[in-house]
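Attaching the record inline, Q. Sequence:
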Amino acid sequence: MKQQYIVAIDGGTQSTKVALFDTLGHEICSNTVPLREIHLYGNSRAEHPDDDLWDTLQQACKGMLNTFHGNTEDIIGIGLGSIRCCRALIKEDGNLASPLQSWMDIRLSYPYEHKNDEVRYVTTATGYLTHRITGETKDTRSNYVGPWPIDPETLEWYPEGDIFDSYTTPRTMLFDLVDPATILGHVTEQASIATGLPKGTPVVSTANDKAVEGLGAGLTDTGTVLVSLGTYITSMMVGNTYQDDAKFYWSNPGAVSGEFLYESNGIRRGMATVTWIKDLMGTGLVEAAKEHNLSPEAYLNVLGKDVSAGCDGLFTILHWLARPTQQWERGIMIGFNGSHKGPHMFRSVLEGIALTMKNNAQAMCDEMGVDIRHLIVSGGGSNGDLFMQIFADVFGVPAHRNEVNESASMGAAICTALALGVYLERSSAIEHMVRRRDIFQPVESHVVLYERINREVYTKISSATEEVLQASHRIFHP
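Structure, as predicted:
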């Protein structure tokens, strides 16, 4: 049987990855291009500079294809995934009218207000890239998260009237909505020249990046929680009904029609905090890692493993980026003594992430009346054995990672396989394409220790420091 391939586009906050899969979910080759540093304007605006998403996508596509030794005629489809909660303002000619607004931008907390005559369309990151690649003004309905004039249950634009008008965006400026796992259009000649992708190849809609990640991780039942390690870290479970009155989680559009992803509170700039620690340790870490023939990240995991669980009382609160409604929040490391060094800080960040996500996931599951029986961890951070073991110990349940642990690219491939009829249903695609890599069992003594740390110390730090951080915020942001 002739081999067939799927291109999966995974656009993130810090990089653009393009991977090539066969129809059994084996990653044939891939290329990742870092995005430029986001332009931050205080705590209010955050923009991707120039046309960075499109520029890096072109580079990533060409880089991936340069390592592919097969025939591009055997590429049957392209799954397009990108960051959620971003806003793209597009001119009539398809170019950006202004830099793409990141999900960290305060403007994304309220509807678009039309003030620039150059703007012809207002859409998401997936909508913008769809237009670039296919020329179509279509977008997945499952990437409209936030203040858009869309019914959160039906995922249709509100009919024109008072509700629609309250969002202040004219209907003529919005793209047409399609279901995830639907053909959006085909690669144009111009896009083919820019990216190297074969002209005429079908381009398939996915969803928001977290829903695509849930699909690619093989998330299926209500006893399994997925922790997604990205710039934004969250935990998720799948369902088939929209929940509009939940307190500790919210309903996110899913990656297949009729599906919803239940998502807990998360950590903003989560894995960026790990990068911060690595950068803080500087050239000394890099040189030491070279001496051991390891990457700085891998060497940090070795050093962190030698630090005892609990870091001898060094705790980290992960508010490196405050929530829009609580701008006084700040990241905290508390409990230093003279024995603490860089590896303690590194492990403390990992433990802080795991403890925060345990509490967030537990609140979600308690509200749903569901017990956490198993954990999937996805994203590049799951490559670290230390981090995986910390998750198993903090959650107190087995934790596994998949062969393709950057699950958003796998989810984009699955959406494409479904759209093209390679598989007829979600479960069949997951069965054939998603494979478990390994599993980490919790260490009972660590489970007991982390439970006590969480109960007696960790959950009390934020409330104990809230008043002083609010006072500090008033001084520097009167």
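The CA atoms of residues 52 and 235 lie 28 Å apart. The two ends are 68 Å apart (CA to CA).

More tomorrow.
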